[in-house]
Amino acid sequence: MSLPATASWLHRDARTGLEVAFFQEHEGGWRISGATTAVEDGESWFVEYAITVDAGWHTRSAEISGRSASGARRTVLESGGDGRWRVDGVANPRLDGCFDVDLESSSMTNTLPVHRLGLAPGAAAGAPAVYVRASDLAVERLEQRYERIGDRDFAYTAPVFDFSCVLRYDRHLLVHDYPGIAVRLS
């Protein structure tokens, strides 16, 4: 599936900000570079990322840097595509079974599991992800689930946050509308 050269999102409701991402074909997969700047609960932060996915949309690496009032941070996530992860060079078995990276700061990262899973209409699947917090780049496991309820609509749930919504995607399967979080600008 082709992707546009770039996409952007306006973050709203939960936070105020903007995200811009750039897509480049890379070794049969994609390299996605982007940044988000936002104000959330009165705190300003920015996060920059470079994520590499293979041809099957398994995340292979993510280089993430950010800054908030608590200071500058950087973390590097690496996987062989087998669901095992190294965080800053150290194996992290708590993340075993995760094939995607989900950045709290990013709407774009909800694109990764939708491409990887390739769900048929009516099908659903769990998609645990390596979750990276925006303010301090803390890394944790996030259990989440996607159900394809239409051509480009997916019911999304993240039980730990008691959150569910219908994510709407465009023809490239990039998030178009993330209720309460962001809307696609371009």
UniProtKB/TrEMBL annotation:
One Pfam family from the record: Glycolipid_bind
Domain of life the protein comes from: Bacteria
SUPFAM superfamilies: PA1994-like
InterPro entries referenced in this protein's UniProt entry, alphabetically: Glycolipid-bd_prot_put (IPR009467)
Identification of the protein by name: Glycolipid-binding domain-containing protein
Organism of derivation: Amycolatopsis keratiniphila
Lineage: Bacteria, Bacillati, Actinomycetota, Actinomycetes, Pseudonocardiales
